[in-house]
Amino acid sequence: MPYYKYAAITDSGGNTTGVVEAISVEAAQDSLAARGLMPTSVSETSAPGGAGGGESFLSQLGTRLQKVKPQDLILFTKQFKTMLNAGIPVLQSLDVLEAQTENTKLKAAIVSIAADIKSGTTLSKAFAKHRDIFSELYCNMIRAGEISGTLTEVLERLIYIVDHEFKVKKDIKSALTYPAVVVTALVIAFFVLILFVLPQFVKMFDKMGATLPLPTRICLGIYDVMIHYWHVGLILLGGSLFMASAYFRTEGGKIFRDGVMLRLPIMGPVFKKAAMARFASIFAILQASGITVLEAMDILGGTIGNHYIARDFRNLREKLEQGRGLSGPLRSCPSFTPMMVSMISIGEETGNMEEMLKEAARHYDYEVEYAVSKMSELLGPVLVAGLTGVVGFFAMAIFLPLVEYMQNAMKGGM
User: Taking the model in full, what pTM does it have?
Assistant: First the structure.
């Protein structure tokens, strides 16, 4: 359906503009009237937020490429919840959000959601059409809120989830910034030493007639390969990256990659604890929203953020369908910590699963926060050792021939 750009007067007397999807100008005007708006101008446009021609195409391309940041999603969810709590109808709330949202991609999604709802689509299905913005968990939570009639409570829980995960990812990213900078500097230093520094010393060694030790010969071998076979190296590197990228897009590749991530020293435990915290917090919210355990396993499998652990959820579902409970099958899953299994077992026995999951989530949140704070401290000595090793190796490659030459000169002088 075509899009129509409009300017209208709200029921409070204010002015608003936006884009609406409709089959004709008359349908667009009727749609605006249904929202309580009085259109003053309606004109066709080729894209949400666009204005036709090349400019419209560039606008549409920019909208598609733009990302919706977690802060934008948190603000949208907070405003949506506040308006629904105030008794404002969904369509009118979306219209206000459309006018206030600055992110063009999110604005276009809001326009599309409002148009779908007017055509009879449920709110959760309208949200599900924009999975690049609203995750599977987000859409399923909206569906649970619709079914149970607790949409505002569900939105409050979604705010917590999005905000919490944004903070965890931000902390992990901050902790990895220093190691990434050091590794980058180390790689640059390696290439500079090999390509520019070492050749100058080699010329001097040739003039002196010095016998080159093993470290120097190794560096020269690396230099010769990089100079004479760089194109072969680029082909091999490009081919390896392409094959690895293709493999990691497959389900088996994703499982292998995420399994390796969980086994990494220092960082692996952080990723595992973060996955446990995510599992417990999301599962607790799903339980409170009235979603069955079987449905929760499906949702968690797609939202846990780790394909290796998600594979366990698929196996769990088969065992749950046999009526074997949750804690029992969990014990056979190596991805889950003993503490998590124990907490779920107690929750099943006492009938207070939601509270036990919340306690587990709080515990692992603290564990993740502590582990992230210690990660930089633990990685520091490793990086220093690596840096020292590289610098020491090149120092040996450069100074050992000099030392040997001086020793031979002294012997000759005697």
Answer: 0.64
